[in-house]
Amino acid sequence: MASVTLDAIDKRFGDQHIIKNVSVDIRDGEFCVLVGPSGSGKSTLLRIIAGLEEVSSGTVCIGGRDVTQLHPKERDIAMVFQSYALYPQLTVRENMGFSLKLAKRPKAEIDAVVNEIARSLALDKLLDRYPRQLSGGQRQRVAMGRAIVRKPSVFLFDEPLSNLDAALRHHVRAEIREMYERMRTTCVYVTHDQVEAMTLADRIVVLRDGCVEQVGTPVELYDRPVNRFVAQFIGSPSINFFEGVAQVRGDQTAIRCADGVEIALHDRGAVHDGQEVICGIRPEHIRIGTDEGAHDIRVDARVKSGEFYGAETLLVCDTPVGPLAATGRDRQAYGLQHGAQASLSIQSANLHLFDRATELRLN
């Protein structure tokens, strides 16, 4: 196992500045996910770690060793690609053992390692098949098995589940996490899917336009996003936003919103009188119905749409402060139709505040 340290990484393609002074420390044995929208630079950063892209400036260290100028095969890494990258003319057995064959390992050793890894990935009955005879999920497991047999210091995953359907993604995602728990090898995983990031990662690196927005555990990013972008990107269904102005009267602070809605703050934080703010509230922190908590702010609403997920219902409503999405777990929410009147209660204790000008977190 090994740590991965990126220090002041810059990458340019001609006039395009793709990676901008990125510094990240990935701990030994950690499962780190690089996440961000398309064009954020996450795959380029992974390819820089792998040695498939040269840096314009900065250094890459793996296990404390500067590998910036080293060829990929000298970095002791293994990469699992989105496209599987299997040799079509080779069987599953031959694909998985290919790197060991190149290393001139004895055939008995290759067979023993391949058989062991194949059993752990439920591929032992498929060893004599060719890639064309496998499903997408089976091919991805073969690609993972081929990486595992090398026993590298670092595993790199480049959006390995994007070609799979939703049910299979969930299954293979669980297999990847199980593999990690068993081996505890450092993993760097790229995805644009924040749900994937939240369920797999020990820590997440959120990227936007080639810059690091925030690094933290899934809970840290969800509960305390550093800015509006992270708050909006992390979480499904997405967070609600509405605007307001801070009012400070002695030791009392409130946010005055549209149509006279006022939200008292229990933690003033860095808010000053007259400051324009963006309020964020996650759908699960809005109650549907008249059951209000002690510090909830009640608003009248009209239902625009509803989505039933079985365990809960997501309602999107028009309110005086703008559209709000709320989740409810009772059948009362499920029965509300388009145009119906509803009552929503905003849990003010769970309000996120961002400065309107900078979009940085305030509370």
Question: How would you explain this protein's 3D organization?
Answer:
The chain is of the alpha+beta class and 363 residues long. It folds into 2 domains: 4-233, Rossmann fold (3-Layer(aba) Sandwich), CATH 3.40.50; 240-355, OB fold (Dihydrolipoamide Acetyltransferase, E2P) (Beta Barrel). 24% of the residues lie in helices and 34% in strands. The chain contains 10 helices and 20 strands. It has helices at 42-50, 92-96, 98-102, 107-120, 136-148, 166-183, 194-200, 218-223, 228-233, 331-334, and strands at residues 4-13, 16-26, 31-35, 57-62, 65-66, 77-80, 154-158, 186-191, 203-208, 211-216, 240-249, 252-256, 262-265, 276-281, 286-288, 296-308, 313-318, 324-328, 341-347, 352-355. The strands form 4 sheets. It has a 6-stranded mixed β-sheet, with helices on both faces. A 5-stranded antiparallel β-sheet has the order 13-12-11-14-20. Strand 4 (57-62) and strand 5 form a beta hairpin. Helix 5 runs parallel beside helix 6. It is globular. The model has no long low-confidence stretch (mean pLDDT 91). One of its GO terms (biological process) is carbohydrate transport. Residues 4-234 form the ABC transporter domain.
List keywords for this structure.
about 375 residues; alpha+beta; Rossmann fold; OB fold (Dihydrolipoamide Acetyltransferase, E2P); 2 domains; five-stranded antiparallel β-sheet; ABC_transpr_MalK-like; P-loop_NTPase; membrane; transport; ATP hydrolysis activity
**CATH homologous superfamily of the largest domain - what is it?**
P-loop containing nucleotide triphosphate hydrolases
User: What's the gyration radius in Å?
Assistant: 25 Å
**Mean of residue pLDDT?**
91
* Total helical elements: 10
- Low-confidence blocks of residues: none
Multimer state: single chain
What global shape is seen?
globular
CATH topology of the largest domain: Rossmann fold
Number of domains: 2
State the share of residues found in helices, binned by percent. Answer: 10-25%
Domain ABC transporter: 4-234
Protein name: Sn-glycerol-3-phosphate import ATP-binding protein UgpC
GO molecular function, one term: ABC-type transporter activity
Keywords: ATP-binding, Cell inner membrane, Cell membrane, Membrane, Nucleotide-binding, Transport
